[in-house]
Amino acid sequence: MSQNNSKNEEDNKDDNDIAVVWDFENIRVADHYNLEYLLNNMDFYLQEIGRPVYRKVYDNLSSPKEIWDVFLNHRFDIRHTKRTRKNQLDFYLMSETIDYINKNPKIRTCVLITNDGDFTALVENLQKNSVKVILLHEDKCSIDLLNLVDVHVNIKNIKHKILQSIIKELILEKNVISLLLNKQEFKEIIYNMKDIIRYLINFYHIRSKLIFKEIFD
After folding, report:
1. CB-based contact 105:127 (threshold 8 Å)
2. Is the CATH number of domain 3-157 3.40.50.1010?
């Protein structure tokens, strides 16, 4: 890739404001440690495609305070609804997302986190207004929703995004290791490192580049 193309990609990424909307009643994370880990990796993924300027999570009142503290630390606004009123949650998510994006035309991408096929109308509305929709979903996602969005990514594929990047950089920049060690030994080193790296990411919020520098330089 030429330097000009690389620069254009960086410019496009900087101009791509992103709205992130999470239907947490539909895609839940069991505890705040796992949520912290997922959100750190999600932040890393989002930074690769643009600049998140709006983050909102929708759920009933059943989640513990620790969950909401994690969301707040990651700059999410929180909308609570009563547990028995799913249609109300869907309504708020759709209407508030459309309203915010309409009022902020610099947002050209919406990352929607759900499996729920009831949000096809939301996707169609956004696409009609030239907003790209990226769906983060689980295995049980609605087929109609998968077929409609511009891009869909199974959420399990970004759960270890930082670790994957570290390993990739290790292989590219420290490939002398792979020459000195046989294949099985190299795999064992990577495997033994992953829990240490995950611990650092979870509890100290160190960016992947800093982790890479501290461990391998």
Report:
1. no
2. yes
**pLDDT tens per residue, range 57-94:** 999 888 899 999 999 999 999 998 876 666 889 999 99
Where does the chain hold its CATH 3.40.50.1010 domain(s)?
Answer: 3-157
The string of pLDDT tens digits covering residues 102-131 is 999 999 999 999 999 999 999 999 999 999
DSSP code per residue over 1-53: --HHHHHHHHHHHHH-EEEEEEETTTS--SSHHHHHHHHHHHHHHHHHH-EEE
Question: Contact at 8 Å (CB) between 62 and 83?
Answer: yes
Say how far apart CA 173 and CA 167 lie, in whole Å: 10
User: What is the residue type of 200?
Assistant: L
Task: Return d(Cα 166, Cα 184) in angstroms, integer.
Answer: 19
Neighbours of 167 (CB within 10 A): 16
User: What's the pTM?
Assistant: 0.73
SS3 content of the chain, % helix, strand, coil (to 5): 60, 15, 25
